[in-house]
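Methods — Computational structure assignment.
A single polypeptide chain was analysed. Its primary sequence is given first, followed by the predicted tertiary structure written as structure tokens.
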Amino acid sequence: MTHDEIEEMLGVYALDALDPQERQEIDDHLASCPRCRAELAAHREVAALLGNPVGEAPATAPAEVWDRIASSLQDEPPFLPPLVRRGSRRNLALLVPLGAVAAGLILVVALLAAKVGDLSQQVSSLRHQAGVTSVLLDPTHRTVALTSAVHPRWRTTVVISANGEGYLINPSLPALKSSQTFQLWALSRGRVVSLGVLGSHPGGAPVRVQPTMTVLMINAEPLGGTPVPTTPVLVQGTLPVGL
């Protein structure tokens, strides 16, 4: 290979995407060509930046590296008939702009992040299901029905174990605005206390009941919840004595 051909292949060489024979030819050339060695070092800096692990602080590229990248993206790719006739896999890599490579890496990271988020939701759902099953299998568990006197179809059920830990299941509640969330309340010694926000889909939400609590209630509050109720109760139910 000529000096110009090797110089065009240094980017692919830095990514270790050549066959052994091509790599050996470039190794031999690099031993006697300081210009190509310097160019190779720049390519490896860029490759290291693109390969920076997710979650770590990104490295800072030297100004001359980014200048070289910008220049290469603005220029038209050279016509390389000798390389095309060779039929080597390096042809495709040489014609792919660095910007496309970076975009591909960003897409891969985004897809992986989405997959991790989906798996996290599945794990959370399985934990809730396991928790509900555990409470239902406890022979001492209690079931509390929360209903509405105004809208008979609005109702939900809370299953609670002997230690006060439970879950909200089978909710049938009105649809909320995007700016609202369901919030769970309890009446304890004459005071209404918040037991936490439930989101817009409260099925499987954990509940913690104290012995002093006598009534459970759910209403709709602004996102994030409120320290005291600001809207009417949607459903409510009386807790068994001595729970």
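Note: The chain has seven helices and eight strands.
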